Predict the 3D structure of the following.
Amino acid sequence: MSCQLWQDWLDPYVDGGCTPEENTGIEDHLVTCTACSAEALARMRLKHATRLAAAERYTPSPDFRMRVELAIEKPRNPLSSIPFVIFPRFKFPVLTKRWKQSLWAGAGTLVLVIVVWAVLSGRSSAREQALAQFLDLHVATMASSNPVDVASSDQHTVKPWFEGKLPFAFNLPALDGTPLKLMGGKLIYYKNRPGAQLLFDLRKHQLSVFVLQEQPGATPKSMGVATVRQKGFNEETWGQAGLRYVVIGDTSATDVRSLCELLRAAQRQ
Amino acid sequence: MSSRRLMHRVYTLGVVANSPGASGSFADLAMPHFASLFNLACWLTQDRAAAEDLVQETYVKALRGFPAYHQGTNFRAWMYRILRNTFLTTQAGLQAAASLDSDDVRVVEPATEETPEAILLARVGQETIQKALEVLPMHFREIILLSDVEEMNYKEISVALNIPIGTVMSRLFRARKAMRKWLAATTQGVSA
């Protein structure tokens, strides 16, 4: 086979579109032919360089992502909320005494369920309100032209910067071997108490980590440990050694969880 | 539209949002591809605002068509096919479509003398590659992006573009040849 014919096989070879037998044949030829091996190398380099140049060149804004998520969000079933619009001629049947007793019993159970639900959702909404405030802080940081007070990828620069500014200390995780990168930190005030906000980069997405002292009035007791998704962001919070940690990002829940695990491990050191 | 019909439509959309739901809702399947579809849309439209409109319309159309999606088939390719078909109905898409039937489109190349391509390509920077992709015709640009950036195999590209695998291979070959020629000529022009 001439070199011209071999070169027609180089694209499928570089794209991984050849069978194992075809690969073997091509590789045998490349070992003996300098021109074809240089050509194969050039095509591999170009493929790799194209990926670097074009992948993630354009990234969607969190606001746009949120708009699309809302557009495709499953709407509520309106049949359950407004039945009379759908069935305008619907009439309640005449009830016997036995039916009335059953209805009262059912109504009593319903009231009990509503009371329990109200208590539980009250706790849940208090937590969500608190997390929504951290989300606002995160979004405001993203929109700021100066997102951090101390800009450094070195944990030994960022951590000492907080010394004297916060009445507590925390450890930063080692990020070697992870796609995460520390971008810096800033001082925040949450309910009149100082706290730290750390900014991390993960494949061009930004994640915020808030660290505060867990004291009555500073963070709601009901926050506990929670993972919440709201407005396209994933949030996770937990308490550890008297401090409250909140991690927020528009990355997947798995990515947020990974950062949480690193932070938890760092505090145990 | 009467309120009853409107409510029926909203209800129907709500039902389809989870239709093939055994392995996840539409949002669960579609949102992981959001960033890459947006990137592809920007490359196609060359305009961020137009890309946002295109992606949003794609997601709404895909949601409506979700009951017709066959579980187990390639969801990413299916989404890209909707994005591409939607783009081809826009004004910019119609202009780009004019060149779709011919794979023999010539890319304008700077005049240069011959130098081995492999040597020249080694000097190419990211900005030059981005420029090369921008000047390529749309059907060359998209097939390079699907293969090299999205790392789709030939079968996936065949589904996404609705063309036979043989056409995928020949179009990709021509697209890369056109890109290499443009890059070699540009690099030689700069270094000369």
In short: The first strand of chain A starts at residue 150 and ends at 151. Strands of chain A lie at 150-151, 180-190, 193-202, 205-213, 226-230, 233-240, 243-249. Residues 62-119 of chain A form one domain. Chain A touches chain B through 44 residues (CB under 8 Å).
